[in-house]
Amino acid sequence: MSDSIEIISWNVNGIRAIATKEALKWLDERDTDILCLQEIKALPEQIPDTLFLKQHNEVIINSADRKGYSGTATFSALKSDYNSTCKDIDTMNEGRIIEQHFGDVVLFNVYFPNGQKDDERLQLKMKFYDDFLNYCEKLREEGKSIIICGDVNTAHREIDLKNPKANSERSGFLPIERAWIDKLLSHGYIDTFRYVHGDIEDAYSWWSYRFNARTNNAGWRIDYFFISEDLAENLEDAFILPDVMGSDHCPVGIRISL
Questions:
Q1: Which stretches of 65-191 are DSSP H helices?
Q2: What is the torsional sign of CA 80, 88, 12, 200?
Q3: Residues 76 and 56: beta-carbon distance below 8 Å
Q4: What is the pLDDT of residue 186?
Q5: I need a labelling partner for 212 at 20 to 30 A (CA). Which of 57, 60, 118, 136 fits?
Q6: 151 is catalytic
Q7: What is the edge-to-edge ordering of all strands in the sheet holding 189-191?
Q8: How confident is the model over 38-70, as pLDDT tens digits?
């Protein structure tokens, strides 16, 4: 890997829709090394080749079995030593994980499940959380450093959403979901945005399409970059790009030296 790289993560809420809006063209002007997309809602053959002009050395598409649903995609200027779609964790084949190894550094692009549909779906989300963390811990025992990015579908603290009290009984801000992020951090992972920016307020990555939520910045921070603590001294920046339009989410990113 190069000395310093930029990784950007974005839930695009449909890669074909975002292509129609030309909402990825800004990346042609930006020095981004790895782009991790979630909720692509497309099969590989349905992804337009007009997303950007930039060429990538590695493109990994992990589509859901169910058409027009979920899915992840990673576009990388760097060639990985190994990659996987973690079928043991994503047991429903919803295209939720792309794992890449670059030497001793493992990058995960993850679209974590949403638990709002019903209690069964919430339980599936919590199992996915636990299975994923267990897998990351196994890799760390093997001497790997971990970078996790994607749509976690949970706001961690009250500071991470506009209306915490009104949403306290809604999946995405339930105590059980927030406790998993506590658990992740207690296992030696760092929320990069908070590590860099502290308790800055009104920093969100998702807004409802209703009630002029984005115009009013009534949002949630549910898209993250977590890194294992051994990478803390390598972290140069963590950021949110709220002015990038095209989805109900905006991109988030880090710059890190490796």
A1: 119-141, 175-186
A2: negative
A3: yes
A4: 98
A5: 118
A6: yes
A7: 82-84, 97-102, 105-111, 145-151, 223-228, 189-191
A8: 999 999 999 999 999 999 999 999 999 999 999
Averaged confidence pLDDT in the chain: 97
**Is residue 101 predicted with pLDDT exceeding 60?**
yes
* DSSP structural state of residue 215: T
DSSP secondary structure letters along 178-208: HHHHHHHHHTTEEEHHHHHHTT-SS--SEE-
Contact 185, 212 (CB under 8 A): no
Architecture of domain 4-257: 4-Layer Sandwich (3.60)
Smallest CA-to-CA distance from 235 within 187, 186, 185, 196 is with 196
**Tokens representing residue 35 in the block:** 């782009």
Q: What is the pLDDT of residue 15?
A: 98
Per-residue pLDDT tens digits for 132-148: 999 999 999 999 999 99
Distance CA 202, CA 218 (A): 8
86: left (phi over 0), alpha (psi -120 to 50) or beta: left
- Spatial distance between the Cα atoms of 223 and 111, rounded to a whole number of angstroms: 9
| Distance, CA of 258 to CA of 256 (rounded, Å) | 6
Q: Per the residue annotation, which of 28, 31, 118, 151 is the catalytic one? A: 151
Q: Which long-range contacts (CB under 8 A, 24 or more apart) does 138-146 make?
A: 139/106, 140/188, 140/228, 143/104, 144/101, 144/104, 144/105, 144/106, 145/104, 145/105, 145/106, 145/227, 145/228, 145/230, 145/231, 146/105, 146/106, 146/108, 146/189, 146/226, 146/227, 146/228, 146/231
Identity of the residue numbered 239: F
Q: What is the pLDDT of residue 150?
A: 98
Q: How far apart are CA 42 and CA 39, in angstroms?
A: 9
